[in-house]
TrEMBL record:
Organism: Luteipulveratus halotolerans
Keywords: Cell membrane, Membrane, Transmembrane, Transmembrane helix, Transport
Principal localisation: membrane
A GO CC annotation given for this chain: plasma membrane
Similarity section: Belongs to the major facilitator superfamily.
Chain intervals for the UniProt region annotation (Disordered): 1-24
Transmembrane segments: 29-51, 63-83, 95-112, 124-142, 154-175, 181-200, 232-255, 267-286, 298-315, 321-344, 356-379, 385-404
Phylogenetic lineage: Bacteria, Bacillati, Actinomycetota, Actinomycetes, Micrococcales
Membrane topology: Multi-pass membrane protein
Name recorded for this polypeptide: Membrane protein
């Protein structure tokens, strides 16, 4: 990795320069962010593939086993804003590097937890450690990439997160066929460490960032400034609703496919996570289309596609369930790529805090809705789960339409 002590500021206006798509600097930056996205999501969501095994091992309910995911995302959400403030002082690449490395090391120890309580506690610590990556990555891209290429760059970063989420789940699922859930999580932790080392080698130093003093009053003032902008508030709410529904569906999907009427083997259930590849494709494609045709329309189209996909999963048909989850996944990641990139465009100053607020909402949605989803499934089965997620996505679609059609000039150039 380059000299991570070479840090600059985000309080100046976005530079007219910046790396454009196709340039060597652009490829190096987006390659490094792809790697760190892989690191983050392998670590964060490998546990999702072993939730049924955790229920059996420790004698907890689906909602109880879901704490292995929701605790991580919940504490990550709480740590995102402090991590973004640290990046204002110590630099983007330095914070991302420390975050990814510490998370990978915790991941190596975590699988040998003697109880569910210890496992949940370590997953919480891992969430705090992970916070520096998502808190910083969006601001780093917004500063270092030319505005005209930002959507595509954000799409590539989100693509890395989708493949990371897929890889973590698949590795854990395949390892279950050969060993226990403990070794499944250990394999995922080793892979996460490998991508961390890739990021450390590849990430270039910042060119458009200067360090600035940090403090509670200064950080609070920046946060309040973002929270008084209605367009940013709508995007923050969108992140909360979209991620909350997405994690809810995938937390419960394994339980549904293992149970009657499907009763699928664990190895096949693990393959279902290949549907994340639809998110890899959609996030990159929708990011490019948003640069060209506008963010509002692409956001609404992606959310609508996710809702249609969700409806297709209702019948007890494996074909329609898998097709629906494929479309649901593509719609979610397309919408997330648009919304996260839009935050970077709207927040001219203090982008790290703006990104942190979006991701705070995003992971609060994951944590809170992820637990509620277990309750909805226990009460109403898969139909109850779908009703819960559909309500979140219908609200996201409504506010996305308001953002798109707002007469106050909510444009990409805003």
């Amino acid at each position: 990795m380059g000299d991570v002590s070479d840090v600059m500021t985000q309080t100046v206006p976005r530079p007219a320069a910046g790396h454009r798509q196709g340039e060597p600097g652009y490829r190096r930056i987006t390659g490094a962010l792809f790697a760190v996205g892989m690191t983050t999501f392998v670590a964060m969501y490998a546990a999702q593939a072993v939730l049924p095994q955790l229920s059996d091992e420790f004698g907890v309910s689906p909602a109880g086993s879901a704490l292995a995911v929701s605790t991580t995302t919940g504490l990550l959400a709480l740590a995102i804003i402090p991590a973004s403030a640290l990046s204002e002082r110590f630099g983007r690449t330095r914070v991302m590097a420390a975050s990814a490395l510490l998370s990978a090391l915790i991941g190596l120890v975590l699988p040998w937890s003697p109880s569910m309580e210890v496992l949940v506690a370590l997953r919480g610590l891992q969430g705090i450690a992970l916070a520096g990556v998502p808190a910083t990555a969006m601001a780093y891209l917004a500063e270092e990439v030319h505005a005209g290429s930002l959507g595509a760059a954000m799409g590539r970063y989100v693509a890395g997160t989708t493949i990371g989420g897929l890889a973590g789940r698949l590795l854990a699922s395949f390892a279950l066929d050969l060993s226990t859930w403990r070794w499944a999580l250990e394999v995922a932790a080793l892979v996460s460490l490998g991508f961390t080392l890739w990021f450390l080698r590849l990430a270039p130093p910042s060119e458009h960032f200067r360090p600035q003093p940090i403090g509670l009053v200064t950080t609070a003032r920046h946060l309040v400034g973002h929270l008084t902008r209605p367009r940013l508030l709508v995007l923050f709410a969108s992140g909360l609703l979209l991620m909350g529904g997405f994690v809810s569906a995938y937390n419960i999907l394994g339980f549904r496919l293992l149970a009657s009427p499907f009763a699928l083997p664990e190895a096949f259930v693990g393959l279902v996570f290949l549907m994340y590849l639809s998110g890899t494709a959609s996030s990159a494609a929708v990011g490019r289309l948003a640069d060209r045709f506008g963010r509002g329309g692409m956001l609404v189209m992606s959310e609508a596609a996710a809702l249609v996909g969700l409806a297709l999963t209702l019948p007890d048909s494996l074909v329609t369930t898998l097709a629906g989850m494929l479309l649901f996944t593509a719609g979610f990641f397309g919408a997330h790529a648009v919304a996260s990139g839009w935050v970077g465009r709207l927040a001219v100053d203090h982008r790290a805090e703006a990104s942190a607020l979006y991701l705070f909402a995003y992971y609060v949605g994951s944590s809170v809705a992820g637990v509620c989803a277990g309750v909805a499934y226990s009460a109403g089965g898969w139909s109850g789960l779908v009703g819960f997620v559909a309500a979140l996505y219908a609200l996201a679609l409504a506010i996305g339409a308001l953002l798109w059609r707002a007469p106050s000039g909510v444009t990409d150039a805003a």
